[in-house]
Amino acid sequence: MTNYDFRALNNEEFERLATDLLSKRENLLIERFKSGKDGGIDGRFYHSGEVIIQVKHYVKTGYSGLLSKLKSEEVAKVKNLKPNRYIFITSVGLSPANKKEIFDLFNPYILSNNDIIGPEHLNDLLALYPEIERNHYKLWLSSTNFLMSLLNNAAIQNSNFLIEDARKESYKFIETKQLQKALEILDENKVVIITGLPGVGKTTLAKQVMLMHCNRDYEIYHIEGSISEIESIYLKERKQFFYFDDFLGATLLEIFTRNSDSKIVQFIKKIITDKNKKMILTSRTNILNRAKNLSEIFNIEKIEKKEIEINVSDLTDIEKADILYNHVWHSSLPQEYIDTFYDNRNYWKIIHHPNFNPRLISFITDSDRISGIDSSNFWSYIENSLDNPEMIWSHCFNNQTREEVIDLVCLVVFNANNMEERECKNALKRVFNIKYKNNFHSKVNKIDEYIKESIKSTLNRSLTQLNKNVMIRLTPFNPSVSDYIINRYATDETSLALYFSALKTNQSINTLFSLHSNRKINADVFISVLESVLNAVDLKCLNDYSIHLLHSIIHSNLISTNKNRMVYPSLFLNIEEEYLTYDYEVGECVLWAVKNAPSLFSDQFISDFINYAMRSSWRYTLNHDDYLPLAHLINLRPAIKGEEVTHELMEHIKEYWHENYDEHLSGTGKIQSLDYDERSKADDIAYDMLHDLINEYDLPFEDNEIEYMYSKVDASTHLYDSYDYDEDERDHFHSHRDEKEHSESYINDLFQKH
Fold first, then answer.
1. What does the alpha-carbon distance between residue 548 and residue 518 come to, in Å, rounded to a whole number?
2. How far apart are the C-alpha atoms of 558 and 104, rounded to whole Å?
3. Which CATH superfamily hosts domain 143-314?
């Protein structure tokens, strides 16, 4: 049974819900009015005379505030109008005594208690007319039943922070035509990419679309890590919804390393051909355009068909007004601050400001961010924030944030905007050891205090559970925090060197290279910081982190002089199996070293190295990328091509493809795009693809060996499986936003209701 308190709705939304329900109850079309028209009537219909409706959403003031308003204003209006019947609707809980008091006030116009409708009656009507509940989606998103269904769904426990965050944001979300467009693209393509400039509401829109699918039995998966993460959680028979915010973002360099761009596109193809899957991604427009320029595959696969770009310029004045009004309504600003938006019709100045965007509106209506700003200066603060958007975080970090908390935020931002809390604490200790050497212990003892201070002001803290392991992660409060920090420190070599040297994570290395490739820091700063990071690493005993650092340098676009100054081939003579597990980065580093200093590396070294690599497969499965550098090493030394080590490597490769080629096919696009009746063509294509992969090794595989590798494959199982879309689901997500004409009068009326 429904039991809403209706706090999720602002008064405009509550009035619409109330008149929709009353229309159903009375089986009549109700004419709605805006505030200020016909003496404050909210609705009217004719049935044996004129019937007028008054709707009061007084959840913030309660019954005493409601009663005062009725006595001082509404009773006189009703007596002046002299309707045949008066229906009063409110979100304030009413006792029998309260109803009698209201009945007596409006006697003889209220004909019965049935025409005094409180939240209990509204909930009864919602139970009778569930289609109205579905149409007012902000209502059911706030319901206890919806929350309990989420908490009981074990499959979404790793996304519970995302879902709860989206539920809180849904209160301030306004349905625009962009929501409907995103849903239409998702319905048609199973995948939608939301793009736009910073602050336009990409993430907010994506979260609301995701949240809508929670109520359709989809398991929600929040992708936060590497590209390979999305492959490991794909379950073919389950209804899954994948959410990938800023999917290019700060890790653009990683995206275009090891064919990761191809992996994303292949995964998108897999989603498109699976009736049980949907996926939403976000990206800043300039980053996605750069991806298209850097990677041909993003253009070949016509990604733009799955894009929706959000532009603030596309928002109508009414949509901007609704966004502003909804944020003010749901804010906890004191009344004297709220009045600032209404005084002199200041709301028009905000709506028409060229820098209007939802993120700025969120900031100027956030009571936590105006501490120290007197109400008499609040309008000046709003104007300055709109004229200089960067001022918001400047005020926060310069006047409201301790230096130690800024250190913490910098570490999270420079770690690709996502860091496990335990790792962050260790990195912060390394920063404190250098920055506050004489006060180190007292600072370390306050680390938990600094983290607590940062939460919900500059950082978010989330708990994710994978199997039985609980991980606590820190992320920026929103993307503008990251933008501010990067711009603030872009030329500060000393601070950048301190933070990146302290981090010691692969993600931080990716971020450093990405900042350079995206021209956020110039070449001189990049080289200086990179050298500091190198100097802070013990290269005598290579580990996963130092290998990733060296590999990133080797495969960067740095000029050879810089590479050779930073990386010596002799470094890779020191690989110790105890500290370093083989993968493609280790292999490619050694391959580079052998090519650049062949005399340093004997044939025996290469044989031993390949044997060490194959022993790693006892602990985890090596893949195609891991085997390639080993094969290329053999091709550099013809003397070992006929030795046992070559035969053993070929056996490893043969068994790998025998066991994994069928799974590999599931991520390719050529097979999925064929029709089922093209079965023989699918087999030919799949076999040729395998042949091309084996040719990359340049090792003497026989045809019968390739046939063995292919023997477990049934290409027909990867063909396109057509499906019929659930029309009920499409209808469920249809936008019921009213067409609003005469925007100036609508907006002025809207802001009279405070």
1. 20
2. 83
3. P-loop containing nucleotide triphosphate hydrolases (3.40.50.300)
471: β partners: 464
- At 650, list the tokens: 């070929």
d(CA 659, CA 713): 9
Token pair of 238 as six digits = 């389950």
Which amino acid type is present at position 570?
Answer: S
Residue 108: asked if its preceding bond is cis (omega within 30°), the reply is yes
- What are the residues whose beta carbons fall under 8 Å from the beta carbon of 608, sequence distance 6 or more? none
- For position 547, what pLDDT does the model report? 97
SS3 call for 108? coil
Token pair belonging to 371: 């501490």
Give the global pTM. 0.73
Bigger pLDDT: 493 or 147? 493
Give pLDDT tens digits for 70-93: 999 889 989 988 999 999 999 999
CA distance 103 to 97: 10
pLDDT digits (tens, 9 = 90+) for 4-57: 889 889 888 898 899 999 999 988 877 666 554 445 555 555 555 788 888 898
Q: What is the mean pLDDT of residues 463-486?
A: 82
Phi-psi region of 39 (alpha: psi -120 to 50; beta: other; left: phi over 0): left
CA distance 628 to 498: 36
Tell me the DSSP string of 591-640: HHHHHH-GGGS-HHHHHHHHHHHHHHTTTS---HHHHHHHHHHHHH-GGG
Question: Where is 499: in which H helix or E strand?
Answer: helix 493-503
Assigned fold of 11-135: Trna Endonuclease; Chain: A, domain 1 (3.40.1350)
Amino acid at 1: M
198 CB contacts (<8 Å, ≥6 apart)? 284, 359, 479, 480, 483
- Residue 25, exposed/middle/buried by CB under 10 A (0-12, 13-18, 19+)? middle
Per DSSP, what are the bridge partners of residue 52?
44, 86
Whole-angstrom Cα distance, residue 205 to residue 211?
Answer: 10
Q: Residue 280: which H helix or E strand, with range?
A: strand 277-284
